[in-house]
Each structure stands twice: as C-alpha cells, then as structure tokens.
Amino acid sequence: MFQKLALIGIGLIGSSIARAARVKSLARTIAISTRKAATLDEARALGLGDSYSLDPAEAVRGADLVILCTPIGAYGAVMEQIAGALEPGAILSDVGSVKQHVMKVVASWVPASVHFIPGHPIAGTEHSGPASGFPELFVGRWCVLTPDKDVDPIAVDRLTAFWGAMGSNVESMSAEHHDLVLAITSHVPHLVAYNIVGTVADLEADTQSEVIKFSASGFRDFTRIAASDPIMWRDVFLTNRDAVLEMLGRFLEDLAKLQRAVRVGDGPGLEALFTRTRAIRRSIINAGQETAAADFGRPHPGEKTEPAPVSDLVREHGGGDDA
Length: 323
Hints:
- A six-stranded parallel beta sheet has the order 3-2-1-4-5-6. A three-stranded mixed beta sheet has the order 7-8-9, covered by helices on one side.
- It contains 13 helices and nine strands.
- It is α/β, with parallel strands linked by helices.
C-alpha cells in the first residue's frame, strides 16, 4: 500500500500502527524516530521497524506516509525539523485527539506538494511506551480524519484505506466538529476521572487507604482512566480548551440540577435521569462500542470465561505518546 511509512514517536499508538502495518503488509519499510535514545533502543529490540533514528528528518526522507505519534505539544518542534525533508506527494497525518490546534500548528509548515490529512484513531489503553502496543488495537474502533476541503481526495482515500486495513471504521468530519464531540465523549470524562482520583489523593491517610481497599467497580474504572499518560492529556486540555470548557460548563449545570434533586429528595426526577442515561449506555452497546457482559466483562475468580473481544479491551484514549 505504501513504500515507506515513517512514524515519529513510538508509544502505544505508534507501536500499534507499526505492528498492524507489519501484520497487514501495509508498508514495504517502516522508519521509526523518537526523541529519546532509550525509547528508540526499546523499539529496535522489539523489532518494530526497519530503520531507527533520533533525527526525524532522516526518518521521513523518502517516506510516502508520515504519521506524527508524539504528544501534540511537540508537533511544532517536529514539523520545524521535518518540513524540508518531506517527500513531494507524501501524505502527512497524525494521531492526536485534538484537531483544530493540530491544523493550526502543522499547516504552516507543510509544503504545497504534501497532502496533510489530520487523523485521530479513537482507541487506546491506559498504558504507554513501545511495548504496550498491539496490532489489534484499532480493530472495530473509529478513526476520524479531518482533511481540509482542498486536500486531494485520492490522498484521503489512500489514508482511509490504510486505517481500514488495520480494522478501523473511518469517518471524515470538520476539525471543529471533531473537537466538540471528543470534548464530551473523551476529554471531559478524563477530566472528571482525574479530579475524582485526585480527591481521594487529598483525603487523610486512613480514609484514603480504606477507599483504595474497598474500591467498587465504578471507582476502579475512574482510576484506569486517570492512569492515562499525563503529558498527552496535559496537551489535550491546553489545546482543546474552548471545547472542553463549553462541555464542562454544560456538565456542571447538569451536575447542579442533580445535586438539587438529591438534596430535596426528588426520587421521580432521579429515576427519570437514570432511565435516560441507561438508554444511552444500551445504545453504546448496540453500536458495538462496548460489551453487554456482566460487570463490564471482568473475569471473577473461579469463573470460566472466554477471552474478551479486542473491542472490549480498548478504550478511547487516543493521541500519541513518546516516552
């Protein structure tokens, strides 16, 4: 499909792309660049690529597909290094979970002969680093592309086919719409999770230990989300600030209504809300984005369980990490 794939950054997402591209024979050669020698050595030991370099310009030379897999905050510095080495006719993409900022930062560096198509695979786990990737990460998950209206449609089709071959469902939309949707489906939930787990961290030692000891499944889910890469999520909140604040405002208004319902003992109101939210949960399951298995498919001691489908194991952390 591509002669040379260059991955700039080789954390969870980058290493999963490398593995999937290898398994599906989507690139003749894979070049890997990262800013830390230790990370590059780890990628080499894992056999993720065919060539390795600390110089991203060297990695992208001759590449017909370049994907930025670093934290969003590093994009500007990376583009300054690679802009002059990008191959005419190459496709340049990324995996960041914020798109308006990416288009603003990257577009000015992209040569006219290069097709810039921002992307966001909505898949991930709370783990990071080259060893955390696996080729099935994108199977059954969405990958959103946000190409400018003037981008060559043939290039968009090629990138769509690339993600589709790795198992993704691909959809194109505007960068603005993407950022608003992801603010409520991913970014605000992460912010809430970080805050709840942070509250526990601020409790007195005795109370904190009891919360950890007796944590229920709901709290365990929050801790999983809050374990996501801190640098990546710092960049997400700083670069998608307007959309996050807009959705956070809506969330706080609804939380205030819920607070009042609890305070005044509004049983019917609480039941009506919980019925509506239960329907949303069911629609997510029906859309194939989660499992209907009891306790979210978690295995329990003594139970004989089948391996959970890949789509049940991955979550929407998106973005790149470059340890």
